[in-house]
Amino acid sequence: MTAGQAQFYSKLSIRGQPWRDAAACRGSTQIFFPEQGGNWKDPKELCMSCPVRVECLDFALRSGEKHGIWGGKSERQRREMRQVAHPVTRQRGV
User: Fold this and answer.
1) What is the DSSP letter of 52?
2) Residue 16: left (phi > 0), alpha (psi -120 to 50), or beta?
3) Can you tell me the distance from the alpha carbon of 22 to that of 24, in angstroms, rounded to the nearest whole number?
4) Backbone phi, then psi, for 68, in 5-degree steps?
5) What percent of the chain has a predicted confidence (pLDDT) above 90?
6) Exposure of 70 by Cβ count < 10 A (0-12 exposed, 13-18 middle, 19+ buried)?
7) Sign of the CA dihedral with 71 first, then 74, 79, and 80 last
8) Residue 93, class by beta-carbon neighbours within 10 Å (0-12 exposed, 13-18 middle, 19+ buried)?
9) What pLDDT digit, counting tens, does each position of 31-70 carry?
10) Euclidean distance between CA atoms 59 and 63, whole angstroms
11) Which end of the chain is more exposed for a tag (fewer CB within 10 A), N or C?
12) Whole-model pTM?
């Protein structure tokens, strides 16, 4: 999925979320979908000053958002957070 496609799908998924109008990133979402190896620092810094960062991150975690930076966390960071919250149970002695 390209950054443009990810941005399109993410915009669709946040419609109706009451917190989005107060987001610091409103109107500048392209920077939150950097290409691989792109700049992740600037968007994460913007998130740190956002009044709805927690709500944004919560939305991304609950909806399984797999692309872009949400609530100051990258795709990898959100995946790690989900794994800690819901670890896969391993069976022993099989």
Assistant:
1) T
2) left
3) 7
4) 80, 180
5) 24
6) buried
7) negative
8) exposed
9) 888 888 888 888 999 999 999 999 999 999 888 888 889 9
10) 6
11) C
12) 0.72
